[in-house]
Structures are given as C-alpha cells and as structure tokens.
Fold this sequence. Notes:
The complex is a heterodimer. By secondary structure, chain A is an alpha+beta fold.
Amino acid sequence: xxxxxxxxxxxxxxxxxxxxxxxxxxxxxxxxxxxxxxxxxxxxxxxxxxxxxxxxxxxxxxxxxxxxxxxxxxxxxxxxxxxxxxxxxxxxxxxxxxxxxxxxxxxxxxxxxxxxxxxxxxxxxxxxxxxxxxxxxxxxxxxxxxxxxxxxxxxxxxxxxxxxxxxxxxxxxxxxxxxxxxxxxxxxxxxxxxxxxxxxxxxxxxxxxxxxxxxxxxxxxxxxxxxxxxxxxxxx
Amino acid sequence: xxxxxxxxxxxxxxxxxxxxxxxxxxxxxxxxxxxxxxxxxxxxxxxxxxxxxxxxxxxxxxxxxxxxxxxxxxxxxxxxxxxxxxxxxxxxxxxxxxxxxxxxxxxxxxxxxxx
Lengths: 236, 115
C-alpha cells in the first residue's frame, strides 16, 4: 500500500518560508505502523528531515507533533487512528519552529518553571527518612503526576496561543494543582498567591482541547477548575 | 504572578465571579421574557406597557442592563487582550465599546422610567 505523507518543512538557514512537502512510502497493508515509524522511514529517504524522538514508547514526550490537525505523540499514534488518505504532519502549533517538526519549547518551560514544580516543605523538624502519606492522600495525586510535559495540551490551547507569556497553560497548571493538593507541601498559600491574577489561571475558558489531545489521558481542565475553586475560597 | 499589565489591573477571581453572576441574571431575564412571549396570546401595547409598569420589572430590567454592561466589559477585555496586541488600539477600542455598553444602560434607564 502506498502512503502519502505531507510534512511541514522549514529550515530557517535555507528557506524563506515554510512549505509542505509530500512523500510517498510503500508500507505493508497488514502492518499498523506508528507515525514515528513512518517518520523514521522517511528520514532514510530524506536525511534532511528533522524531528525529535527518544523513548519511542510514549514516556519521554519528545515527539509531540500535530497529525491530521490533532496534537499527539507520534510514537503511540497508529496510522489507523488517522483515517484513510493523506497523513499531514505539522509541528506543534503556537510554538516557534526551530526546524521542520522541531519547535522551541522555551516559553512552555518558562511557564512550567513559574509554578515551582517541586515539593516545598518548611517544617521545622523534617522526618529522618521521608515524608509519608496515607494511601488516600497519595491517591489525590493520581491523574496529575503522570504528565510527561510533551506540550501537546498547551500548544493546542487558544488561550496559550494568544497569551503564552502570561497564561501558565494546561500543563503548568496541572503540575501546579499536583503540588497544591500534595499534603506534604506547605507552600499552598504562596502558590495560590502566585497564581492569583487575571491571566495565569483565569485565562482558561474550559475549551478542553487539552483534554482532547492529552496522550496520557489526563484532564488539565478539571485541575484548573479545582485551582479556580481554591482561589475563590481563598478570596471569600 | 502577572503584575505588569498594559491595562487597568483586573482581578481574576472578581472577574470570574462577576461574569457568572451577571450571566445568571441575564439568563433569568431571558427565560422570563421567553415565558412572557409564550404565555401571552396577543401582545399589544397594553400588555407591553403593563409588563414594564411595575417597579419590580423596572428593577429587574435595569439589573439586567447593568449586568450586560459588566459582562460586556469583562468579556470584551478578555477577547481584546487575546486578539488586539497593540495596547494603544486596544485601549481605544475598549473605551469605545465600554461607552456603548454604558449608553445602553443610560438609554434603558430613560426608556424604563418613561413607561
């Protein structure tokens, strides 16, 4: 079976403007290849094609791309899920393109850094070995800690597209909530103060693109709603 | 925390609450008016005049107009800060739109108390 793949190409050192380039690939009809497998085969045809990848099993979050209009990880997206016909692969939207499918994620990491994604505990007498939690307290973190920072969610969010320097974005806010409800963390008030403005959290209008594209099946919109509730309870 | 906004500083929590409370009032007014149109067989000037003659209806309508003004102010500020990146243009457009929203309230006030 011949597969046609249209890929966004842009090398700022050579190209004046981005373009879409079509590739043809012969694939076994009985195989359901992942998009990353296709990209690797195409790179053998054209070594100038650039994309990121590492673990190739949906753990590292390196190969986030836009496939047929929807963000996802190329390594765990089977061709069969993209329907029949041409496959169109573009870089993650809303982020500056470094080259081809490689994007500059600096702004994404700046927002992630703002939420202080680490445990803060200023207790006077820290335990000798570790901070223990009950199974119930630990269960609160399920659905939050699994985020791999692939940026599929933030780069599909219109609020992040328009205000990437002010709105934290779904990934950052998911992590923010992960530490806000961690019983071992003592900086809840400080964390909420940092988020208490008109942009950082409240730019989320519950569009839910983040939920629709998250390759790990997480729900950033729900976490953001919980942060809004915490800010509201703190204000009244 | 975003502290330097090229605009009058807004409070996220306050805007969040204001948008929802004003939306509830606007929704209640819409439902009431829909019920009036459905339940009244023949709407003539007499029915229309009678509806808006009561002080409660005047207050309800005015509250809805004020709610629309607040809702528009916050909603358009959000839309404009998304799409209009030039601060000068945004401030001018925002000022004009806020003025129009305020004019609606003023005109509504005169109309209501003229009934």
